[in-house]
Write a structure and sequence with these properties.
Blueprint lengths: L19 H11 L20 H13 L13 H17 L7 E5 L2 H19 L8 E5 L5 H9 L2 E5 L9 H7 L4 E7 L11 H11 L2 E5 L7 H6 L14 E7 L11 E5 L2 H4 L4 E3 L7 E3 L8 H38 L4 E3 L7 E6 L4 H10 L6 E2 L4 E5 L2 H4 L2 H16 L15
Parallel strand pairs: 2-3, 2-4, 4-5, 5-6
Antiparallel strand pairs: 1-7, 6-7, 8-9, 10-11, 11-13, 12-13
Helix pairs in contact: 2-10, 3-10, 4-5, 10-13, 11-13
The structure holds pyridoxal-5'-phosphate (PLP).
Pyridoxal-5'-phosphate (PLP) binds next to α4.
Length: 425
């Protein structure tokens, strides 16, 4: 971003207050120009299971609206209990061995930052080198949260190109490992193509090299187990694979929990003990936090606990069945449109389509004119969607508009407006 883009709007601090009702009405009015996410028009950012889940999440969040999870160990033992139970339920879901441990965080990026930091701590301890930097090796489809972590911690990231079938190239990842490699990462699934990396093979090479393997199941963690239980061919990705030392999984994605809520797990309590930050040399008392942030909303903790309790495995399976059947319908509908194809072999709920004969971005632009906010891939040029029930409920509308957009692009004609840019946020 340029400094100009960061300039705040011209506005002064209000000298007088305003009536609450007027302020709330202004907030509602201000949303008018936002994407119509309730109608599935946002390509990501929003996740829906069913209305009852949203309502319970909101109610549970409100119940703990005021409490601060920073004080979970002292002032709010109930928050600590809820958090520990969320972690315990998830460790069971992810086939963790006894003795495993984890934490709730405010998001996937924070979970990843913390796991990378724990790994760097261990590498420094093992090498008896308090300044060791080291590298991370992963497929090029790795989420940029790892690059953010690497930038903050001065680590090198080696992104290895995917194979022609767009799957992670494990042999090339293996070849990129050297003496300074401290971390391998596999995604379940990756963000661009929605494909689960071959975690079983990564687990084997992690054990061979005795290198830490983290599984970024941020987007798929709370969906993949239920898809597998439904008999879908989703590869193994969790602690059942012995080389997996840590995992991240976002409750605020396919856990259908209110934001902010994510989880990070370690195969053993010894590894987990690398995460918390402790400080005692200042005029105040001992300061210990398990996460990167200090103050954080207890609402996210209570709401996650409530949603997990409400749905249980049976509820998550039911929603996964309905959602994945809807996504199958979407995939079949896209494939039925002459000139379009699905990118790779998506394993879960991220699906991208492209075209060999038409410009996918030109089609995306026409969809955007119909209110469908595009999310674009650069390699290959494609249109990407992170789908939940919001998108499943509107599959037919989307496909109808997509057919029209394709027909218009095929017919040629003016392509008005500025070119679209592939961007995530
Ligand atoms: C969403 C996502 C993240 C980051 O999660 P945030 O909650 O947005 O910080 C990391 N990895 C993958 C694969 C993701 O899809």
């Amino acid at each position: 971003m340029t400094p100009e883009q960061l300039l705040a709007p011209a506005m002064t601090f209000p000298q007088q207050g305003r009536p609450a009702e007027e302020i709330l009405q202004e907030l509602r009015d201000r949303k008018a120009g936002d994407v119509f996410w309730q109608g599935g028009r946002a390509p990501a950012f929003m996740f829906k299971a069913e209305a009852q889940v949203d309502e319970l999440g909101r109610a549970a969040f409100t119940e703990y609206f005021a409490e601060n999870a920073l004080g979970a160990s002292s002032a709010f033992p109930s928050v600590r209990g809820l958090e520990q139970e969320v972690v315990a339920m998830a460790l069971d879901l992810f086939n963790a061995p006894s003795g495993a441990a984890g934490f709730m965080t405010t998001g996937g990026s924070e979970s990843i930052l913390l796991a990378v930091h724990a790994c760097r701590q261990q590498a420094r301890q093992h090498r008896a080198d308090a300044r060791h930097h080291g590298n991370i090796v992963a497929s090029e489809t790795l989420h940029p949260a790892f690059d953010k972590a690497a930038a903050l911690m001065d680590l090198e990231i080696r992104r290895v190109p995917v194979r022609p079938d767009l799957r992670a190239d494990v042999a090339a990842i293996d070849a990129a490992i050297d003496d300074n490699t401290i971390l391998l990462v596999g995604s379940a699934p990756n963000f661009p193509y929605g494909m689960v990396d071959p975690i079983a093979e990564l687990s084997r090479i992690a054990l061979d090299h005795n290198v830490w393997l983290h599984v970024d199941a941020c987007v798929g963690g709370y969906l993949a187990p239920f898809a597998r239980q439904l008999g879908r061919p989703v590869p193994a990705f969790d602690f059942a694979l012995p080389g997996v030392r840590s995992m991240s999984a976002d409750l605020h994605k396919y856990g259908f929990c209110p934001k902010p809520a994510s989880t990070v797990f370690y195969r053993s309590a010894e590894l987990a003990a690398l995460q918390p930050f402790s400080f005692n040399t200042w005029p105040s008392g001992r300061f210990v936090t398990s996460t990167a942030v200090g103050t954080r909303p207890a609402g996210g903790v209570a709401a996650a606990w409530a949603v997990l309790q409400y749905l249980g495995a049976e509820g998550y399976r039911r929603i996964a069945a309905e959602m994945l059947a809807g996504i199958d319908r979407y995939i079949a509908g896209v494939r039925a449109i002459d000139g379009l194809h699905i990118i790779g072999q998506p394993d879960l709920a991220i699906v991208a389509w492209g075209s060999d004969t038409l410009d996918a971005y030109a089609i995306a632009k026409r969809l955007a004119q119909r209110g469908w906010q595009p999310s674009l891939l650069k390699r290959p040029r494609a249109v990407h969607r992170m789908m939940s029930m919001l998108h499943v409920e509107t599959v037919d509308d989307y496909l109808a508009d997509l057919r029209q957009a394709v027909a218009e692009v095929r017919a040629g004609g003016a392509d008005a407006g500025p070119a679209l840019e592939a961007r995530y946020s």
